[in-house]
């Protein structure tokens, strides 16, 4: 038998030598790493074809069973199995390892057959011509067109044997990606959950109102005054259970006063001084408010303590109106067209006690609101929002959100004398946690200006008299007992 050894620095070169020597029918018998390099033992497929016939012993018929059992595990059968092409060598190794595993588990019947053949004449097994390693190494023969990384030796894990019992154990449903229909269903389920919770809360509050008529009456009064159901419910949830009708009303009014932020007595805008910019929607009275503040400061500290600047270049008479108020007070009004001009005028008026900046009126949904706020980004400048106290609650909410309520120095409630319901303005100030810096209750300059007094404002808001087509009926109160939620501060932090 022609068996040759090939040594090369790498396994790829050793395999190439074997293929050049024996061609595509080369059979790899063993591989190992030696001090001289990588060693490969190989032989031609034709030289192994006669081993199977030469390994058959001429034994007596009585020993045929033992001979078959011994031949099953002998090297002769292995060499016969090795008479194959190089491409099927891996399948042969896997089959041999599987057979060894079965023999170790006792699945092979070789011991039993060997015991029966013990009484017969002993048959010496044929000695193997080639010493094989105890644990065969699987080395795929490198093809010339394969990449280098495929030529490295690798040991593959044996796949598990599938039976009828475990055929469906590892069967899992295929992964399914979320579709647009699934997302729409999730949104509908969430909306259904919110509706169920709202209905249960409504039923709970209706049941509570039947048992507590004082609570139901107070809710009706707060809704008629213009307060939001969110704030009204948050207050009534904390109402003392043993309080009478009059005591409960006083407790609710005191709770509203404690949560309404106002400037301290003697610490108004004129007393604070500095640079104050009045911002707000169109027609809320910013120019008139600027004239009232200037008049208050002139009355206390003199005409030289006030500076007037307007950024209102949109209206035809905007600058002229402020100039007219300034001539009445003995103060010069200046016009700034952009941020650079505003900075120059602020430097010119830096010695004044109070500098008032009047801005152009922009609705809360105007895209230019952010541009105007960027112009007013000047150090030490305080932005004060002028709110129409008679506006709708939703409009006040949007205005506070558009003008960045968390960055405001405070708000001024204008047109209080025209407001039928003052509750929406106070409700929004409480929920957005802004400070009321003053109250303008008329057009006269400077008489119609007052400091913010929470007791007066709350009493004025709760004093709504007369019937209105927009007042809720007692049968509609169930719609106002919904779960607390909405814009503004979380009402769990109310001070009661």
Tell me what the structure shows.
The chain has 19 helices and ten strands. The relative contact order is 0.09. Among the domains are: 3-151, no CATH class; 263-452, 3-Layer(aba) Sandwich (Rossmann fold). The longest helix has 32 residues, at 180-211. The protein has 496 residues and is α/β, with parallel strands linked by helices. α8 crosses α9. A seven-stranded parallel beta sheet has the order 6-5-7-4-8-9-10, with helices on both faces. A three-stranded antiparallel beta sheet has the order 1-3-2. Helices cover 42% and strands 11% of the residues. The protein is elongated, with a radius of gyration of 48 Å.
Counting copies of identical and different chains, the oligomeric state is single chain
CATH superfamily caption of the domain at 263-452? P-loop containing nucleotide triphosphate hydrolases
> N- to C-terminal separation?
104 Å
Gyration radius, rounded: 48 Å
CATH class assignment of the domain at 263-452: Alpha Beta
Structural class: alpha/beta
Report the total helices: 19
Percent of residues in β-strands = 5-15%
Give me the CATH fold name of the domain at 263-452.
Rossmann fold
Helices and strands, in N-to-C order?
A: EHEEHHHHHHHHHHHEHEHEHEHEHEHEH
Taking the sheet with the most strands, its summary is: 7 strands, parallel
In which order are the strands of the major sheet placed? Answer: 6-5-7-4-8-9-10
Poorly predicted tracts of residues: 55-76, 81-87, 117-155, 161-165
Keywords: Bacterial flagellum biogenesis, Bacterial flagellum protein export, Cell membrane, Cell projection, Cilium, Flagellum, GTP-binding, Membrane, Nucleotide-binding, Protein transport, Transport
Subcellular location: Cell membrane
Function: Necessary for flagellar biosynthesis. May be involved in translocation of the flagellum.
Protein name: Flagellar biosynthesis protein FlhF
